[in-house]
Design brief:
By secondary structure, the chain is of the alpha/beta class. It has 10 helices and 10 strands. It has 2 domains: 199 residues, 2-enoyl-CoA Hydratase, Chain A, domain 1 (Alpha-Beta Complex); 49 residues, Orthogonal Bundle (Lyase 2-enoyl-coa Hydratase, Chain  A, domain 2). The protein is 43% helix and 16% strand.
């Protein structure tokens, strides 16, 4: 796709790569950027050849959050919730829709991820960081709270005390520190970052059923907010459905024949 101005969008094998492309602004987000990102994500979901999505940034930043002018406009024009009339079916918050994307979303954090850029990393399913990367929540330094779902996802990743520390102090932490906290799943040398991220998607495409990937992602996020009884019952319903589906037969046959399985690709209903 060549119509984008704030991002680069490429397909490499089973990976859709979305590269934030405002390097002079450390890939800060404007409304136009956010719209382009959503368009690229939707295109990736609708493309059966795409198994997973990789986010990264051009230049020395992953994403520095909202563009300073956008932030100034938002804060100067903000109204109390009771005065706001707009109703949306989308989940509130930046990038929250990524939780419902039925394909793996990988954040390849190449540089600083701050504010909204931190949210992009948090709402991705897996975070792989360059050893040159750093992360900072930054919200409280701007007089804001833990925004865009960070109060929900961050404690689940690192624990309550560590989450509060990251949010309250808004200290910038290194990729290594983020890895030790459990905020980042994998580290990579800068020159190996994209190979690591795309290689992860490649391995998934070779070994895991895309339909089962989507169902597993849905169950994992849904079950963060339900009791164990409801979670086990829902998982059993899904399990019984998948046991009777063609991919299960293909997986068993591939095992018997000692070959790679040929699973169905995900197609949006």
């Amino acid at each position: 796709m060549n119509e984008f101005t704030d991002i680069q969008y490429t397909i490499e094998g089973p990976s859709a790569i979305i590269t934030l492309d405002r390097p002079e602004k450390l890939n800060a987000l404007t409304y136009h950027t956010l719209k382009e990102i959503r368009t690229a994500v939707d295109a990736s979901v609708n493309n059966p050849d795409v198994v997973g999505i990789v986010f990264t940034g051009n230049g020395r930043g992953f994403c520095s959050g909202l563009d300073s002018q956008v932030l100034a406009d938002v804060t100067s024009n903000a109204r109390p919730e009771a005065e706001q009339q707009e109703v949306s079916e989308d989940l509130p918050g930046l990038f929250s829709y990524l939780l419902e994307v039925p394909k793996p979303v990988i954040a390849a954090v190449n540089g600083v991820a701050a504010g909204g850029g931190m949210i992009l990393a948090l709402m991705s399913d897996i975070r792989i960081a360059s050893t040159d990367a750093s992360l900072v929540t930054v919200f409280l330094k701007r007089g804001l709270i833990a925004e865009h779902g960070s109060s929900w996802i961050l404690p689940r990743l690192v624990g309550i005390g560590r989450a509060l520390d990251l949010l309250w102090m808004s200290d910038k932490i290194s990729a290594e520190a983020a890895h030790e906290l459990g905020l980042v799943e994998k580290l990579a040398a800068p020159e190996q970052l994209m190979a690591e991220a795309c290689g992860y998607i490649q391995r998934l495409s070779e070994n895991s059923a895309p339909l089962a990937i989507a169902e597993t992602k849905k169950l994992v996020y849904r079950h963060l907010g339900v009791n164990y009884l409801d979670a086990l019952r829902e998982a059993e319903v899904s399990q019984n459905r998948f046991v009777a589906a063609p991919d299960a037969s293909e997986g068993a046959q591939a095992l018997l024949e000692k070959r790679q399985p040929r699973f169905q690709r995900f197609k949006k209903a």
